Please model this.
Amino acid sequence: MQTKLLVGTSKGLVIFSNINDAWKIDSIEFVGLPVSLVYVDDRANTWWIALSHRHWGEKLHYSENEGRNWQEVVAPSYSNYSFKSDKPASLKKIWSMQHAGINRSGALWVGTEPGGLFYSDDNGKNFHLIESLWNHPSRLDSNQWFGAGKDSPFIHSIVLDPRDSNHVYVGVSCAGVFETVDGGKNWHAKNNGLVAAYLPNPKAEVGHDPHRILVCPTQPDTIWQQNHCGIFRTTNGGDVWENVSGKGGFPKYGFALVIDENDPNAAWVIPAQSDEQRIPVDLRLAVCKTTDGGENWSFTSQGLPQANTFDLVLRHSFVKTENTLAFGTNNGNLYLSDDNGNTWKTISQNLAMVNYLAFS
Model:
């Protein structure tokens, strides 16, 4: 059972502890600073956070004793790299982190904005840019990789195949899903079946906008994504994606997604009204669930506000472990369910914008 909930907010890292089924604030770290990433490396329960300083840029810290002490490492750097031929690249934000395999102690993947993937084999002491993805022909064509409401693309999801440490997927907004089967030496797009309604060619090979990508640990050929243009699922490792959005368009648009650790057919999303109106559908906060691979969706709102709520749940602000789910909102509200998402309770309504959640 997980006893810690790490909440990365725009004003610090808030650590909740579960004591006798009551979640209470244990400590607040990096008070007043915007936390852009929270990652728990479960190989040794190492906590990682990234900070987005307005004046000093991105900072990266880790703790080996559950937040009692923190150490800083040098953040990934784009020194001597260009985003376009006439524009030097620079680190804008650290979006994602994933350990590189149980058999690779201290090895880490890091996804960033402007669309670069970094690798470290020494627990973050040194990072190097994966040039094979940075120089991918589809990225060099400025019409295929582009920012989703930003000046440049960003890598927000890194998915490791638990059977093979050389097999990795990344999710890029906006470009799509890319796969390597040789540890990053070569990459190819895996977007067949996705729809990019905002492009002249909605079925283009590259240019898609996945919001969140997750793999089922027990059946890794099953991968889910909450996409800008719907909810998609593949059961063949990304060879073909199927649109499993709800009938009638609910649920469809959103950012947040969690899936079951054992059941490849079970997933939860928190829908938003649309890309133009990023608010809860009908101003009612609801969590949608499927247990049959997206064929049917049900929703629950018990314990959640049902009128005049403007909460938006960002892509990394929804987490699940066993039967416990939690999500935080842009308005600083934090909700938790300990019965697989059937009912919800309020943990806090006094936080700053919630950017990231992680159980430990």
